[in-house]
Amino acid sequence: MAQEVRGVIAPGKNEPVRLETILVPDPGPGEAVVQIQACGVCHTDLHYKQGGINDDFPFLLGHEASGVVESVGDGVTEVAPGDFVILNWRAVCGQCRACRRGRPQYCFDTHNARQKMTLKDGTELSPALGIGAFADKTLVAAGQCTKVDPEVSPAVAGLLGCGVMAGIGAAINTGNVGRGDSVAVIGCGGVGDAAVVGARLAGASRIIAVDIDDRKLETARSMGATDTVNSRTTDPVEAVRGLTGGFGADVVIDAVGRPETYQQAFYARDLAGTVVLVGVPTPDMTLELPLLDVFGRGGALKSSWYGDCLPSRDFPMLIDLHQQGRIDLGAFVTETIGIEDVEQAFARMQAGDVLRSVVTL
């Protein structure tokens, strides 16, 4: 029997979010119902609200979440009721050409729950990134659940479900940052700061944080940046080159996802250096670069999907590192809020007042 729970929906483009009663069906084969304990307010949720992802309104927002498995459907072996899990938005299929090659982090056929959650009147909801976790409970594919140590704070654990994993993975998995490398990170929100943490964890010798907000630059420094550049007042390309002996950084990570920041990343890297795009562009954005410059600079231009992570491998590892004190995931949590405060959290996000607001239930 379907359960009635509270959920935050985006009813239409740029309309204020609403707290509604939603219906969560019993899990079918391969599915799980998860009781949500915490969910971060991610910029991707704001993109959904603004119509920047697609127009499949109404959306059930929230995806950066942790919670406890309440029930599972037939055939589920990955998790069991009572398990504390982090939700991910890329349950791998195990059958596609990437999975068969032993590279499931690049799975081409990731999936979500087959059944739909609905409003009381039967209107089907589109869960953000296949999760929809601004809710007391949500329905997901069982493969979207990664079991981790239940001793960790739910507010901390949930952040690995998207932004923190995306940033750390952009540095370590996609950028292959190595010991002694120089790294520049453009955009110092949650994802950018996580990239700073990842670069520090990988042993980078110089980590240059670039942003237009001095408050964010100071936070990035507290996360491990060795240098900061305010690109509102300083040419970031020249600044990065100046801090790297005139050459440019070995790895430059664009955590904004705009044509102008990508161009900055492209020209701020050393010859044969790597550019990593982890910021999410909108569908209308286009990029123009001289093809001769692309050829002449060599190196690699990479896009980082979810930090190229494999949740079953990376989530437990990062939780372990946090518990060992080697990384401080709690530093990303600016505030905890109630489920009714999501609209206000979006406003604080846009004003640059928070690194992460986390809904706790």
TrEMBL record:
<dbReference type="GO" id="GO:0050607">
    <property type="term" value="F:mycothiol-dependent formaldehyde dehydrogenase activity"/>
</dbReference>
<dbReference type="InterPro" id="IPR036291">
    <property type="entry name" value="NAD(P)-bd_dom_sf"/>
</dbReference>
<dbReference type="Pfam" id="PF00107">
    <property type="entry name" value="ADH_zinc_N"/>
</dbReference>
<dbReference type="InterPro" id="IPR002328">
    <property type="entry name" value="ADH_Zn_CS"/>
</dbReference>
<keyword id="KW-0862">Zinc</keyword>
<keyword id="KW-0560">Oxidoreductase</keyword>
<dbReference type="Pfam" id="PF08240">
    <property type="entry name" value="ADH_N"/>
</dbReference>
<keyword id="KW-0479">Metal-binding</keyword>
<dbReference type="InterPro" id="IPR011032">
    <property type="entry name" value="GroES-like_sf"/>
</dbReference>
<protein>
    <submittedName>
        <fullName>Mycothiol-dependent formaldehyde dehydrogenase</fullName>
        <ecNumber>1.1.1.306</ecNumber>
    </submittedName>
</protein>
<comment type="similarity">
    <text>Belongs to the zinc-containing alcohol dehydrogenase family.</text>
</comment>
<dbReference type="InterPro" id="IPR020843">
    <property type="entry name" value="ER"/>
</dbReference>
<dbReference type="GO" id="GO:0008270">
    <property type="term" value="F:zinc ion binding"/>
</dbReference>
<dbReference type="InterPro" id="IPR013149">
    <property type="entry name" value="ADH-like_C"/>
</dbReference>
<dbReference type="InterPro" id="IPR013154">
    <property type="entry name" value="ADH-like_N"/>
</dbReference>
<dbReference type="InterPro" id="IPR017816">
    <property type="entry name" value="MycoS_dep_FDH"/>
</dbReference>
<feature type="domain" description="Enoyl reductase (ER)">
    <location>
        <begin position="12"/>
        <end position="359"/>
    </location>
</feature>
